[in-house]
Amino acid sequence: MPVKTIWSANGDVFLLDQTLLPVRKEVLQIATVEQMWDAIKKLRVRGAPAIGVAAAYGVYVAVKKEALDNVGADLVQVARQACDYLATSRPTAVNLFWALDRVRAEIAKNSGADLTARLLDLADRIRTEDDVACREIGRHGAALLKSGDTVLTHCNAGGLATASYGTALAPVYYATEEEKKHIAVYADETRPLLQGARLTAWELKEAGIPVTVICDSMAASVMRSGRISLVIVGADRIAANGDFANKIGTYMVALAAREHGIPFYVAAPLSTVDLAVPDGDAIPIEERASEEVSEIQGVAIAPDGVQVFNPAFDVTPHDFVTAFITEKGIVQPPFASGLKAQFFK
Amino acid sequence: MPVKTIWSANGDVFLLDQTLLPVRKEVLQIATVEQMWDAIKKLRVRGAPAIGVAAAYGVYVAVKKEALDNVGADLVQVARQACDYLATSRPTAVNLFWALDRVRAEIAKNSGADLTARLLDLADRIRTEDDVACREIGRHGAALLKSGDTVLTHCNAGGLATASYGTALAPVYYATEEEKKHIAVYADETRPLLQGARLTAWELKEAGIPVTVICDSMAASVMRSGRISLVIVGADRIAANGDFANKIGTYMVALAAREHGIPFYVAAPLSTVDLAVPDGDAIPIEERASEEVSEIQGVAIAPDGVQVFNPAFDVTPHDFVTAFITEKGIVQPPFASGLKAQFFK
């Protein structure tokens, strides 16, 4: 069972600082909304579903702090500002905006009950729902796996990317733990921030699941050599037509999978589906600092001042996707109707 | 003009230690054949053509040292042993074996002249021929480039991979210097050893040619966005049918280029063509230490003891290649006849 990534205890909010893994396992207490913004921006907490949970807890800590510091403050105003502020942390994962929309709806209720308590309750609920959704993704996805299969995945869409069970790795965990199937994983290291080598390899190793780390550029030849049964990746935003944004490099994996006739699955909760976005061209792609590429753990690996291009995500067109795995089941093409239908299940 | 990578001066042999670039520019004097073996193995000197030159100088230093240390020694025997020993340094680049075959032929001549002098002369000649071949590759390849083009390349097949002018980068240098065309380059960083970020970016920056570093996994989406006019890569061994081995990740670049209708060229001297090998399946692929993937510059980036797969090269099937660029000209398909014909030009 994967480790806890973000949680509350006695009204305090904690998260595991993922930038230090696998070398150090350090828990941060988050006491201000600025700390939460920073944790999201710097990828201390990352992965689309976990970012949604983090945003909800972020609004809660903003209101809690203000209520303590400044008796009689306009907490509704503070909560709304916190929503707007947290929305600026990262642009691509839609789960952030989805969670903030739910928080805004809660704020607007303006019921008699204490706002602070309601926000904590909502954040805890979003966290629990994510747990349940991931488990359901695991259950549905496990049906696609048979004992002896080897899954290739990119980046980390495991337990560390969610409140607990993961999206892309959920079928692997479920098939292993609940169905006693033997599943092995190839983990792309996932440059620039190495979430595959640092996080996916770490959590699978902790769970006792065989994992082999490869450089991203090896995926195509590993597929060509017959080592891979299927690909499962996560998503940061899925457009209405099934085009989806995920960690940079996912598109290249999809190309290689199609070339070698290997099924390519995308696992994500419905909170990742953005029906308001018609196709992948409309998904905003975050560009990040050049130092993420030109330095690794503070060590320069490129000439000083060299030009770098560092998009954090890419868009994979829907026709590369074999099927989506959500908490409601498997979505086969055509995706435009199939994804929409999931919301009414 | 690129920097010198390996050369002799007054009978001494020197090389630029490429493992330290771009942070430090350190020249090593090579006084023993063991030092040369180590320099090849550890990639202090690397790139298929440069490895060939290094091997020839390696045999020379073996004989020179023995002649000094041990008057009356059987130098022919020493030279032959040095050939066998250096052949074990790296398995994939055929230029190593090609150069050693020339050295063996020189040894066998058994002329009256001093063997030490003949071996130095041969090594210098192989080095000069490489210079000339690279320049000719540049001249032929430059005809494929028009001003404003952007070339994507993988790994380093530049001046640092040869005695001086480069193979994949030779057309870029020639078009820029001799034809005053404006050419820009996207350099894949090329994990695990980052020869693209460390070496290609460095030598192009030194030459004043615009270069942008990207992670390997970004190549496909950079192509999809329309930024790339053509791809040029080098080769470590080209089979008789045109299948070729090059740095791991080249196959993925070829897949992406074909998907986006981008021409994909392979630039290499004829010493890289191995007519004795019918196709790519027969090319030996070197697997290297797992630490090259799990550590970067000595810093761990994956959990301790995790399983790693680290093939140093991959094979790209010939049908992904638009054309080969050799010192004799451009080779269009069908490659089986075209490559062979180059040897009789």
Summarize the structure.
The first copy, chain A, is of the alpha/beta class and 345 residues long.
Number of DSSP E strands of chain A:
17
Following the backbone from N to C, one meets helices and strands of chain A in this order, namely: EEEHHHHHEHEHEHEEEHEEHEEEEEEH
What coarse outline of chain A follows from CA principal-axis ratios? globular
Task: Indicate the structural class of chain A.
Answer: alpha/beta
In the sheet with the most strands of chain A, the strands line up as: 6-5-4-7-10-16-17
As a percent range, the share of strand residues of chain A is: 15-25%
Radius of gyration of chain A: 20 Å
Q: On the 0-100 scale, what is the average pLDDT of chain A?
A: 96
Helix content estimate of chain A = 25-40%
Roughly how many Å apart are the termini of chain A? Answer: 28 Å
Instruction: Determine the most extensive contact between two protein chains.
Output: A-B, 54 and 54 residues
The biggest beta sheet of chain A, please? 7 strands, mixed
Uncertain stretches of 5 or more adjacent residues of chain A? none
Tally of helical runs of chain A: 11
Identify the quaternary structure here. homodimer
